[in-house]
Amino acid sequence: MGPRRKNTRTKTDVYQELKDQIQYLELLPGSIIRESELIERLGVSRTPIREALIRLSNEYLIDVFPQRGTYVAAISFGIARECAYMRHILDTDVCVELCRQKRNLEEELEDSLFFLQKAVNRKQVVDYIKSDNQFHQKIFEIAGHEMTWSIISDSRAHYNRVLTLDLRREGVMENSMKEHREMIKLIAEGNEKELRDLLDVHHDYIHMRKKEEILRYDFPKYFENEVP
Fold first, then answer.
1. Per-residue pLDDT tens digits for 161-191
2. What is the CATH architecture of 11-72?
3. What is the pTM of this model?
4. φ and ψ of 65, to 5 deg
């Protein structure tokens, strides 16, 4: 047997891996987190695990209870709504800016559309969310707002958990795909009014409360009991 390969995971890698497992529901709300299991599974020391858990606790993604243990936090619809609101305001502003230029984005977004459609065809929700992020990131880059995208994408974990549940519902992913294609068309046409109306729906700005009712009914144990 040859020598064991050195684990090259950094503390940032450990943090991102755990965050992805939480935000894409590989680790479900309420699941217990054991440091010893993470050390064994990730092949790292206790220090990067603890540092990652502290960061995730500060982001309200895990709950630490002294003498009781560490758990994946319930999903906060309050935080998810704020994320959706922030994304809506900034994304709309960027898209309208390009719309006023009548910018044709079809060629620049061709790869993103391909991977979105591939995820739809295979019903791969997590791949769809990641491709969706790449699609909108590219729009921000085209408009010259890369840093703004970085800020809002880093804060989307609670909303991504809601989205992961929502996109599993019949027809939701397919409708979202149609909205992406329509968005490109309206920007190229310079149709600002219809673009704004579309983005109100696409970003969950209008229908977030209704979505909350549906998902709370279907998955009551996953969400915090919050005052509306």
1. 999 999 999 999 999 999 999 999 999 999 9
2. Orthogonal Bundle (1.10)
3. 0.89
4. -115, 110
